[in-house]
Structure formats: C-alpha cells, structure tokens
C-alpha cells in the first residue's frame, strides 16, 4: 500500500501545537507521511523539531486586531508565506492539511485551497480565533472543543468533539513528579500555569504571596520564557520553570490544585485529570475575551472558579484558593460527571477516511 501524506500546521503559542502533537502521535506511521509547516521562529518550531517530523518554516504575520504600521509589513509577510507554503505543498502533494490555527496557519490554508487540497481545522476556544475565522470558508471539516462554538461555523461541516489531549498526559506518576520536584508528601502541590507563554500579572501576584502560599502548599510555577526570578531560586517548596515538556505528566499527577490561564487546551487537560482549578483568564484588554468565555463555561459546569485579572491581588488570590480548597470534593465530583468526548479518536477516524 502506498503511503499517504498529511501536512499539519498551527503555532504562535503551545496551545496551537500540543493538540497537533496529540494527533501526530496517534497516526499510523506506516500509512501516513507526516510533515509540519510553522513559522521560522515560533514555539512550534522548538516543539516539533524535538520530534522526527520534518518541519518547514515559512514567513508569517501577526494578524493584529489594532492599527499598526507592522500590519502593512505583515501583509507582505503573509503573502510571502502563501508562496512558500504553496511551493512546499506542491512538492509534497499531501492528501490532507490539518490546521490547529494561530496566525501561521492562514498562508498554509490559502495555499492548500489554491491547490484544492482538503483542509480540516480544530477550534479550541468558545469563540473562533481570527485565523480560524478567516480559514473556515476554505475547509472541508471543522472540529470544535466547545458545544457553544458550533454556532459560529457552518453546521453541515462542523463537529463538536472536545479537545484532543496528548495520551502521555494521563500516564504521569505522582511519585516521579515529587522526585523530579524534590517535594515531600506532607503538603499538597499547587501548580501555576500562566499559559504556554507565561502571564506577567499572575507571576507577580504569586511571587508577592509566596510566604503565605508556601506555608500551605509546595508550588510549581510554570512562568513562561524569560520570566524566571533568580532571587527566588533557593526558596524552599517553590520550583519555577519557564516551560516543561516531558516532565509535565508527572508534575500534573502530583498536583492537587492548579491556578491557570483560561487557555482551552490547558483547562481541558486539567478537566480530564480532575484537578480543581482557579482560572484567571486573559483580560478583554489583552485579547478578544475568549478565555473569559472558556472560564465562564467551566465555572457554570462546576469544574472551577474564575478570578478576573482586574480583581487579582494577593488578598483575592488567597481567598479564592481557600474557597477551592474548601470545596475541592464538589469540583472533583462535577468533573467526574463530565462527558469526555473521544476527540482524538474521532479526528484520527476522519483523517483515516482519506
Ligand atoms: C495568549 C494566547 O493567545 N493564549 C491562547 C493560546 O494559549 P496557550 O498557548 O497558552 O494554550 P493552552 O492553554 O490552550 O495550551 C497550552 C498547552 O501548553 C502545554 N504546556 C504549557 C506549559 C508548560 O510548561 N508545558 C506545557 O506542555 C499545556 O499542557 C497545553 O497543552 O491558545 C489557546 C488555545 O487556542 C487559547 O485558548 C489562548 O487564549
């Protein structure tokens, strides 16, 4: 049997890459030649180049929502990206393009469309990102994580499936997590994940509250690239990392509570692992407000509490955490009752129809 070829794309932040990695790991290598197009410098390049998947970097622009001179330059970068992506696709002739969104995916999708290559996309957030909004008209099939999102896309080609979660996330060992972190079993573990790129305000308030926090918890702080605080390196019961990859399943297995941004992939992972969460979504000032909606949907279902960034300070952080601690069992019960879709299997089945 001749092998078929699939091209993945998506990037800008890890949330546009980890779902692709989940799918890639489940695809049968004897049936599919797998390739990836991303930006020349983004986190996708770093993450995919750690694997054996061939990676192609193209020019890409940022798709800003505000007026900026950079936008004009970016139009040319996106156009250049379209030509580069078209050249790669023409050469590799994939049967299918799978996009997880993010600005780098737009030139790839436009190029695929001009070559009449079928396109699948997955939207993780409650409301579609700009890249997927632009791309949706060119697609064959659209997958969404949230039920509510289907209203933003044409019904006939949209499937609500949940979030494709990396299988290894489920295989962590709490003991190995504690060994890696140098933690004991006498205090619970609080993990802080400020989104794959970190979160300045969360980092600041956590560090301001460190004395109170470390009296109750052992803390893992995933603070984003360039955000390590050298002055806090030796603090007992406090471990900071810019980003963790292979150790994440063990760390999460050892985690009792998380403080997290409202990035869709992260919160669906915590839901699947039934870890009570305090969600501090990216504010409307800094985004289109998608994380606020993600957080609201989770809070309404009883999985989490939401603390808005505008109200985030030392006092509110400690009080919300206390509330989570007191009602831990009810959050876990609600999460146990959630219907976990078979997102990964559905996507693999649809891909294998080609
Ligand atoms: C600032 C921004 O634009 N954020 C968006 C971005 O978030 P972001 O890139 O932060 O995405 P998510 O929170 O959805 O996913 C982060 C992913 O990175 C992984 N991870 C994170 C930290 C770490 O140390 N190790 C690690 O492996 C998580 O397990 C998860 O799989 O994409 C999400 C999905 O479209 C959106 O909901 C967010 O609004």
From TrEMBL:
<keyword id="KW-0961">Cell wall biogenesis/degradation</keyword>
<dbReference type="GO" id="GO:0005886">
    <property type="term" value="C:plasma membrane"/>
</dbReference>
<keyword id="KW-0573">Peptidoglycan synthesis</keyword>
<protein>
    <recommendedName>
        <fullName>UDP-N-acetylglucosamine--N-acetylmuramyl-(pentapeptide) pyrophosphoryl-undecaprenol N-acetylglucosamine transferase</fullName>
        <ecNumber>2.4.1.227</ecNumber>
    </recommendedName>
</protein>
<dbReference type="Pfam" id="PF04101">
    <property type="entry name" value="Glyco_tran_28_C"/>
</dbReference>
<feature type="binding site">
    <location>
        <position position="291"/>
    </location>
    <ligand>
        <name>UDP-N-acetyl-alpha-D-glucosamine</name>
    </ligand>
</feature>
<feature type="domain" description="Glycosyltransferase family 28 N-terminal">
    <location>
        <begin position="6"/>
        <end position="143"/>
    </location>
</feature>
<dbReference type="GO" id="GO:0005975">
    <property type="term" value="P:carbohydrate metabolic process"/>
</dbReference>
<keyword id="KW-0472">Membrane</keyword>
<keyword id="KW-0131">Cell cycle</keyword>
<keyword id="KW-0808">Transferase</keyword>
<keyword id="KW-1003">Cell membrane</keyword>
<dbReference type="GO" id="GO:0008360">
    <property type="term" value="P:regulation of cell shape"/>
</dbReference>
<comment type="similarity">
    <text>Belongs to the glycosyltransferase 28 family. MurG subfamily.</text>
</comment>
<dbReference type="Pfam" id="PF03033">
    <property type="entry name" value="Glyco_transf_28"/>
</dbReference>
<dbReference type="GO" id="GO:0050511">
    <property type="term" value="F:undecaprenyldiphospho-muramoylpentapeptide beta-N-acetylglucosaminyltransferase activity"/>
</dbReference>
<keyword id="KW-0133">Cell shape</keyword>
<keyword id="KW-0132">Cell division</keyword>
<feature type="binding site">
    <location>
        <begin position="13"/>
        <end position="15"/>
    </location>
    <ligand>
        <name>UDP-N-acetyl-alpha-D-glucosamine</name>
    </ligand>
</feature>
<dbReference type="InterPro" id="IPR007235">
    <property type="entry name" value="Glyco_trans_28_C"/>
</dbReference>
<feature type="binding site">
    <location>
        <position position="166"/>
    </location>
    <ligand>
        <name>UDP-N-acetyl-alpha-D-glucosamine</name>
    </ligand>
</feature>
<dbReference type="GO" id="GO:0071555">
    <property type="term" value="P:cell wall organization"/>
</dbReference>
<comment type="function">
    <text>Cell wall formation. Catalyzes the transfer of a GlcNAc subunit on undecaprenyl-pyrophosphoryl-MurNAc-pentapeptide (lipid intermediate I) to form undecaprenyl-pyrophosphoryl-MurNAc-(pentapeptide)GlcNAc (lipid intermediate II).</text>
</comment>
<dbReference type="GO" id="GO:0051991">
    <property type="term" value="F:UDP-N-acetyl-D-glucosamine:N-acetylmuramoyl-L-alanyl-D-glutamyl-meso-2,6-diaminopimelyl-D-alanyl-D-alanine-diphosphoundecaprenol 4-beta-N-acetylglucosaminlytransferase activity"/>
</dbReference>
<dbReference type="InterPro" id="IPR006009">
    <property type="entry name" value="GlcNAc_MurG"/>
</dbReference>
<feature type="binding site">
    <location>
        <position position="196"/>
    </location>
    <ligand>
        <name>UDP-N-acetyl-alpha-D-glucosamine</name>
    </ligand>
</feature>
<dbReference type="InterPro" id="IPR004276">
    <property type="entry name" value="GlycoTrans_28_N"/>
</dbReference>
<keyword id="KW-0328">Glycosyltransferase</keyword>
<comment type="pathway">
    <text>Cell wall biogenesis; peptidoglycan biosynthesis.</text>
</comment>
<dbReference type="GO" id="GO:0009252">
    <property type="term" value="P:peptidoglycan biosynthetic process"/>
</dbReference>
<dbReference type="GO" id="GO:0051301">
    <property type="term" value="P:cell division"/>
</dbReference>
<feature type="domain" description="Glycosyl transferase family 28 C-terminal">
    <location>
        <begin position="189"/>
        <end position="350"/>
    </location>
</feature>
């Amino acid at each position: 049997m001749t092998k078929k070829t699939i091209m993945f794309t998506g990037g800008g932040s890890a949330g546009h890459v980890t779902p692709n990695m989940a799918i890639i790991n489940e695809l049968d290598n004897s049936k599919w030649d797998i390739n990836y197009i991303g930006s020349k410098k983004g986190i996708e390049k770093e993450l995919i180049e750690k694997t054996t998947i061939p990676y192609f970097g193209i020019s890409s622009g940022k798709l800003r929502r505000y007026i900026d001179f950079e936008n004009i330059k970016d139009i040319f970068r996106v156009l250049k990206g379209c030509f580069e992506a078209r050249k790669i696709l023409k050469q590799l002739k994939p049967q299918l393009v799978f996009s997880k969104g993010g600005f780098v995916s737009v030139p790839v999708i436009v190029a695929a469309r001009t070559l009449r290559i079928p396109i699948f996309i997955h939207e993780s957030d409650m409301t579609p990102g700009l890249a997927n909004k632009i791309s949706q008209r060119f697609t064959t099939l659209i997958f969404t994580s949230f039920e509510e999102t289907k209203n933003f896309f044409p019904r006939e080609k949209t499937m609500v499936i949940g979030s494709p979660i990396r299988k290894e996330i489920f295989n962590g060992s709490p003991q190995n997590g504690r060994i890696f972190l140098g933690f004991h079993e006498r205090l619970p573990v609080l993990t802080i994940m400020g989104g794959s790129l970190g979160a300045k305000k969360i980092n600041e308030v956590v560090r301001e509250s460190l004395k109170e926090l470390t009296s109750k918890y052992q803390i893992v702080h995933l603070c984003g690239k360039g955000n390590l605080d050298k002055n806090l390196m030796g603090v007992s019961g406090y471990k900071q990392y810019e980003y963790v990859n292979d150790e994440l399943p063990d760390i999460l297995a050892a985690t009792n509570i998380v403080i997290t941004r409202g990035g869709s992939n992260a919160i669906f992972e915590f839901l699947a692992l039934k870890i009570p969460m305090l969600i501090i979504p990216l504010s409307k000032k800094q985004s289109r407000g998608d994380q606020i909606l993600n957080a609201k949907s989770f809070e309404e279902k009883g999985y989490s509490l939401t603390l808005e960034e505008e109200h985030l300070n030392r006092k509110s952080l400690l009080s919300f955490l206390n509330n989570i601690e007191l009602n831990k069992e009810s959050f876990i019960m609600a999460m146990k009752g959630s219907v976990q879709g078979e997102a990964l299997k559905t996507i693999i089945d649809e891909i294998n129809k080609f």
